[in-house]
Amino acid sequence: MELLRIATAGSVDDGKSTLIGRLLFDSKAIQDDVLSAAESVSRRQSNEYLNLALLTDGLRAEREQGITIDVAYRYFNTAKRKFILADTPGHVQYTRNMVTGASTADVALVIIDARNGVVEQSRRHAVIAALLGIRHIVVCINKMDLIGFDQQRFDAIKDELEGFFNRLDVECAHYVPISALHGDNVVELSDTMPWYTDGPLLQHLEDLEIMGTPLDDSFRLPVQYVIRPLTGEYHDYRGYAGSIRSGSVKVGQQVGILPAGKTSRVTAIESPDGEVDEAEWPAAVTIRIEDDFDISRGDLICAADGVPRVTQEFDATVCWMSERTELRQGAMLRIKHTTRTARAMITGLHSRIDVSTLSVDPGCQSLALNEIGRVTVKTSAPIVYDDYTVNRVTGSFILVDEGTNETVAAGMIGNPRFGDFE
Hints:
Layout: E1 3-10, H1 16-26, H2 32-44, H3 60-65, E2 72-77, E3 82-87, H4 95-102, E4 107-113, H5 120-131, E5 136-142, H6 151-167, E6 173-177, H7 201-207, E7 220-222, E8 225-227, E9 239-243, E10 248-250, E11 254-258, E12 262-271, E13 274-276, E14 278-280, E15 284-289, E16 300-303, E17 309-320, E18 332-337, E19 340-353, E20 360-361, E21 372-385, E22 396-400, E23 407-413
Parallel strand pairs: 1-3, 1-4, 4-5, 5-6
Antiparallel strand pairs: 2-3, 7-16, 8-9, 9-15, 10-14, 11-12, 11-16, 12-13, 12-15, 17-21, 17-23, 18-19, 18-22, 19-20, 19-21, 22-23
């Protein structure tokens, strides 16, 4: 069965954890001990009903405060498909955790409280989902039971978001009115909203056509480890291990070695099940080539006829994640891009994006926590990359504070999505 990766998004208390709990509960994907523990905590909290959010809020602090702090992953399947659900935080303080949970998602579930409508954090998460290249966004307008299942309110929120998504170039948006607490339109179509006939949320997720993560079919393998026994009968062996990040490779295929700019031919491909003639994304393999080149961790093996770019300076969009410091021009950081780590300097801070209006502030002097902006990065070693719009792996990176080892930013190379906004 196909696997669908889902990330939730939206503001705090919009019902993300409750919705995931409802999906798991109604799909009978909850283990007995987990269900018993949630029922016990619900009784202690004097709830008259099972608090479905407890099925995903696993940290003690989350249960005490009633909010999601960390990213919680839950797994379930139906007769049609397997699912991985990432319950990401809605609180503005933990937006960086939302970036982490959504970075590998195929679908973003944007949860909206029907009473509050579209708030700033809802917009921020929608912008981040678009920046991260998530091609399917499903808007769940929740708590419809608290507004009397009002179709006009649903339509008004839908119209507002459609205009917002049009400016983000998001075409694959779907809207579902739900009540996660009572299960309306989550797994089964509800009788309380006869005006909605497009099917429940789970049916849409089951029928959604998945597109592979890389948009580019060109072969990419960042070298993670060089296997070279120095003694014994295999002393002449040299293999390059890593995970294929896009495309496929065959024995006998000509490949490029970057950043050195050399070419060679594949002589063997080794998988966990032994030698194979061909491998494709996202397999983990060891590749052997016919030439004895100096190749190390951080280098890239790619298709000889579809090579990415090599540079030590590039423009990118970054989401700043540090509470302690702000990002300013001239900052010295460490960059991790695929399997390469190098020193990096922010040589230009060009603009900041207002997530509420999608306007661009070209005169900003810094980026604070959760702010998104356009920067120029210069690195101490060559970076081999594709634009993020082409390949989400080779086009992304993180920035790390060298003093504290804190991950302070996530970045997308190229990605001129906001360049035309005025």
